[in-house]
């Protein structure tokens, strides 16, 4: 066997994989012979005399390839393989070498999770071909898994802020709306606009800090944040399952106060704007409420000047047409105040500016 030639044929994909092999066999002579051949081929070899010892080694270090005998004391190769698979170690390739070669034996091995099965009498050329194929298979699996993870991340997560991307926001919000309608529950959305003095979005570092701050001030594993479609400023949607639109002002006030503290800590001067929309519980069952409509109604509320005006009327009209509720339900600022808008002196509420 030309070891140098076979080593040269290893795929470039395997360069990221450690060339570690764990031999599990209670026959010391068989183990010594195979270990010396693997060592000559450039592999790092560890040994175990039974399955339990092998598991102890695997707990301390990952082995891409395990070559195991079937019949051993304490724990045989079949039980070892079943245990590996039950622990979720799917990224370890298992080759079983055994004198047992009936069809039933092969079936038992593959059922337990063995990747490849060879008789101990197999020639060196075939054994090493299977070993190299094992490493190539592992490398391909890892490459495909990484590509899939990167693709999922690129689609679902906004790279600049770490919030859900706009498409994911719409899909998830659509599911939240349908769930709330099905079970007759509340659902509210708060949109938060973020811009610097020039009206542009801040840096990615600042955006990520702001999103972390929002997440730290809402319910874990319940509320979530998505980024609305890109514009000159950054706009986030905070989705609040089980919350009514009447709850939005107090939640928004808490979140905005935390964002201002984050803003001050980073030494940047940002402006925040807030709007809210929620499912109208009085809407008849079966009425269609769209995710995009909910975001647009909250956007209209966010741009409202907090007083009776044409902009406020548009926000109310849009909410009625979309079968959604807003904080100002009747087209007039209640008691001369808007719970979502800060007064000129920085306090929440207060009299709005005159027309």
Which helices and strands occur, and which strands form pairs?
Elements: H1 3-8, E1 20-24, H2 28-40, E2 44-48, H3 51-60, E3 65-69, H4 77-86, E4 93-98, H5 103-112, E5 116-119, H6 124-156, H7 166-183, E6 187-195, H8 204-216, E7 224-227, E8 234-241, H9 248-266, E9 271-279, H10 291-303, H11 310-321, E10 324-325
Parallel strand pairs: 1-2, 1-3, 3-4, 4-5
Antiparallel strand pairs: 6-8, 6-9, 7-8, 9-10
Helix pairs in contact: 3-4, 8-9, 10-11
Give a written overview of the molecule.
With 355 residues, the chain is an alpha/beta fold. It has 2 domains: 3-155, Rossmann fold (3-Layer(aba) Sandwich), CATH 3.40.50.2300; 166-336, 2-Layer Sandwich (Alpha-Beta Plaits), CATH 3.30.70.270. The chain has helices at residues 3-8, 28-40, 51-60, 77-86, 103-112, 124-156, 166-183, 204-216, 248-266, 291-303, 310-321, and strands at residues 20-24, 44-48, 65-69, 93-98, 116-119, 187-195, 224-227, 234-241, 271-279, 324-325. Helix 3 (51-60) runs parallel beside helix 4 and helix 10 packs antiparallel against helix 11.
């Amino acid at each position: 066997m030309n070891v140098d030639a076979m080593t040269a044929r290893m795929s470039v994909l395997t360069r990221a994989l450690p060339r570690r092999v764990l031999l599990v066999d209670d026959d010391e002579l068989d183990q010594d012979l195979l270990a010396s051949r693997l060592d000559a081929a450039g592999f790092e070899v560890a040994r175990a005399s039974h399955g339990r010892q092998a598991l102890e080694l695997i707990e301390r270090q990952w082995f891409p390839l395990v070559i195991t005998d079937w019949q051993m004391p304490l724990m045989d190769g079949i039980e070892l393989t079943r245990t590996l698979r039950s622990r979720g170690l799917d990224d370890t390739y298992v080759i079983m070498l055994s004198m047992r070669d009936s069809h039933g034996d092969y079936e038992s091995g593959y059922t337990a999770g063995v990747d490849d099965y060879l008789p101990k009498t197999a020639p060196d050329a075939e054994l090493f071909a299977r070993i190299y194929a094992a490493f190539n298979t592992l490398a391909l699996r890892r490459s495909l898994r990484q590509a899939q993870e990167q693709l999922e991340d690129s689609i679902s997560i906004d790279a600049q802020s770490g919030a859900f991307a706009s498409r994911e926001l719409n899909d998830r919000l659509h599911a939240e709306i349908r769930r709330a309608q099905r079970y007759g529950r509340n659902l509210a959305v708060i949109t938060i606009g973020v811009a610097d003095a020039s009206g542009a979005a801040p840096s990615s570092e600042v955006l990520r800090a702001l999103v972390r701050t929002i997440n730290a001030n809402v319910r874990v594993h319940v509320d979530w944040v998505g980024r609305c479609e890109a514009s000159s400023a950054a706009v986030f949607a905070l989705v609040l399952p089980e919350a009514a639109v009447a709850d939005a002002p107090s939640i928004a006030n808490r979140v905005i106060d935390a964002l201002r503290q984050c803003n001050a800590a980073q030494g940047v001067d940002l402006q925040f704007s807030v709007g809210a929309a929620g499912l109208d519980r009085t809407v008849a069952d079966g009425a269609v409420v769209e995710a995009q409509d909910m975001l647009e109604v909250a956007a209209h509320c966010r741009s409202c000047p907090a007083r009776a005006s044409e902009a406020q009327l548009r926000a109310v009209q849009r909410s009625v047409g979309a079968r959604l509720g807003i904080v100002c339900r009747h087209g007039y600022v209640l008691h001369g105040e808007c719970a979502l808008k800060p007064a000129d002196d920085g306090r929440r509420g207060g009299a709005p500016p005159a027309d």
